[in-house]
Write a structure and sequence with these properties.
The chain is mainly α and about 70 residues long. It contains two helices and no strands.
Length: about 70
């Protein structure tokens, strides 16, 4: 006997619970070479993620902020 599946639409009175996106921890040692390669070879899939936010530690944020503010001397 075959099983039958039914699809129910949520009623308008029911609150819709959003599931938070899954997160994965990756070290910069693993991530940076892959991103650099994708950027260097202009892989189009990288553009799909350009608006995504990433979570970094506060100390890395401050280092990057200071680095951006400095002008390398020639």
């Amino acid at each position: 006997m075959a099983a039958f599946l039914r699809v129910y639409s949520p009623s308008r009175d029911e609150p819709i619970h959003e599931v938070p996106p899954a997160t994965v921890c990756v070290s910069l040692t693993d991530l940076l070479p892959l991103l650099a390669l994708a950027r260097r070879n202009n892989y189009l899939w990288l553009q799909d993620f350009l608006d995504d936010e990433v979570v970094i530690t506060e100390d890395l944020y401050h280092v990057l902020k200071a680095f951006r503010a400095t002008r390398p001397s020639a």
